[in-house]
Specification:
The complex is a heterodimer. By secondary structure, chain A is mainly alpha-helical. Helices cover 66% and strands 0% of the residues of chain A. Chain A is built from three helices and no strands. Helix content of chain B is 67%, strand content 0%. The chains are: A mainly alpha, B mainly alpha.
């Protein structure tokens, strides 16, 4: 963390972090979009994290379902398993 | 914060000059503080009752308040009217503001009767608006603190933001990793003669398409599901290695026809794309 020597975090650093967060969010990645308010960004982040969690759950379900349907003795399945193990 | 009271949901603030100073001084009157406590506690921020308290205060007219009350008697009726109006409206912001100021005043407890905000904070409208904005932000930060694991040990906005950013990035990586795995397991559906850029685009579309497909076997309880998730959690950080491994596999099988990794050409070509895509996405 880029804090000053006496561990005081400047307003600027916080703004930097907020911009970084904004760049991660899918909604606000439009080019030339000005800085949205911090409160709105934080709310967007909440929603985004929730949707990402849902997506991860969803994808894990699909993946495990697919793993079951794949022929477990085939060479491909073995590759996939080894990849997952590593 | 000593005064939690009713959080302002809309951030609308009334200037403190809306309420004549006698309002606060009356409530601070030591002799009738008991009455105030009783009524304010019972009123639960009902503006009408607060105003009736004021009315009682004015009726008793103690010596400490005489200098204020005489000059502000005309204001009393205005305030009462205002209180009545806001009661008719139902729950209004004015009531909340009065109640909030009431609580603040009780807790700062001074005796000179001037409008005094909470300890260490100004009362002009800009600072109040700023304070509300800060409260809104800290409320959202607390919400995020609940969502992001490991964030409750961290204090301070900057460190928490850092933590949040890392978490979002890791979630995004997980999603990408999982969708790649799914794509690599699914049967191949498209032509491999297109050039690389088109293949990458198609890959993305395929992944999105797979993700959005309704899954018929979702209702079955899946013993592998926690395992798959665990894989995702542990293994996605090793994605770089896997990308290389995939590439190594395909190049090997491409050269040697008699290799044990004999797959159909489409499947192998597909893994080629996957290998490229791995290397493109994760530097």
């Amino acid at each position: 963390m880029s804090s000053r020597r006496n561990r005081v975090v400047s307003e600027e650093e916080i703004n930097e972090l907020i911009s970084k967060l904004q760049s991660l969010l899918p909604e606000t990645r439009r080019r030339g979009a000005g800085r949205a308010s911090a409160a709105k960004l934080l709310k967007e982040t909440c929603n985004y994290i929730r949707s990402l969690n849902r997506e991860v759950d969803d994808l894990s379900d699909r993946l495990s379902a697919l793993m079951e349907t794949v022929d477990t003795n085939s060479a491909e399945a073995e590759i996939i398993r080894s990849l997952l193990r590593s | 914060m000593a005064c939690q009271g009713q959080p302002l949901s809309n951030g609308f603030l009334l200037d403190s000059s809306c309420f004549p100073s006698f309002l606060f001084s009356s409530l601070d009157d030591a002799s009738s503080s008991a009455i105030v406590d009783e009524n304010v506690a019972a009123a639960s921020f009902d503006g009408y009752l607060v105003c009736s308290v004021i009315t009682n205060q004015e009726a008793s007219a103690t010596t400490e308040n005489k200098r204020k009350s005489r000059s502000d008697e005309t204001n009393l009726s205005t305030v009462s009217t205002q209180c009545m109006e806001s009661t008719k409206e139902g729950k209004s912001k004015k009531q909340k503001r009065v109640a909030k100021k009431t609580e603040e005043k009780k807790q700062s407890s001074n005796s000179d009767g001037y409008v005094r905000a909470k300890r260490g904070q100004a009362t002009d409208s800009h600072s109040l608006a700023e304070r509300v904005r800060r409260e809104k932000i800290s409320e959202r930060m607390k919400m995020l603190q609940g969502l992001v694991p490991g964030c409750d040990k961290v204090t301070g906005k900057a460190l928490m933001l850092d933590e949040i950013i890392n978490y979002v990035q890791s979630l995004q990586n997980q999603v990408e990793f999982l969708s790649m795995k799914i794509a690599s397991l699914s049967p191949v559906l498209y032509d491999f003669n297109a050039d690389l850029v088109d293949c990458i685009d198609q890959q993305q579309k395929l992944i999105r398409g797979i993700v959005q497909q309704p899954q018929p076997c979702m209702e079955l309880s899946n013993p592998l599901q926690p395992q798959a998730k665990a894989y995702a959690n542990e293994a996605f950080t090793d994605y770089q290695l896997m990308g290389h491994a995939t590439g190594a596999h395909t190049s090997f099988s491409q050269d040697a026809n008699g290799s044990p990794l004999q797959m159909g050409a489409p499947r192998q070509g597909f893994l080629d794309q996957v290998g490229f895509l791995n290397n493109c996405h994760f530097q």
